[in-house]
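Section: protein folds

Sequence with per-residue tokens
===
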Amino acid sequence: MDARDTDLKKELDATLHARRELGEEYESALVDSFLEKVDQRIDGAVDRRVRRQLAEQQLQTARDSRSPGATDSWGERFGFGIVSLVLAVPLSAIGGGVADLPGLLVAWAGIVGVNVVQAARTNPGLFGRRKSSQKDDWED
């Protein structure tokens, strides 16, 4: 038997004992009081369940919103590519002007590196990595 069940049983026993002592004229008030305590117990259990389910839904929503495929659209990838090419022009000019060919190669290595990281982030299986399963090593 659960601790909450024993508390409820004690409440019922106290109510029955009070009814014996006070008589039948207080029976409805005693029953109403006991039913109020039962209602409070049920309301508390329902509140806990609703809060737990709401927290689980919020957690799932947060996990889904963090996944790359959920937020990255074709427009975002296209925009990233355009911005990357637009920034490549001044970076190439600065790198080539300051350090000639090595500076130009470093600038383009940085541009390519940023685009590779973005591609790997938006396409997890692109470079041979497997998409991790939902089950974590910490879970049974």
User: Anything to note?
Assistant: The mean pLDDT is 82. Residues 90 and 107 are 10 Å apart (CA to CA). Residues 74-122 form the longest helix (49 residues).
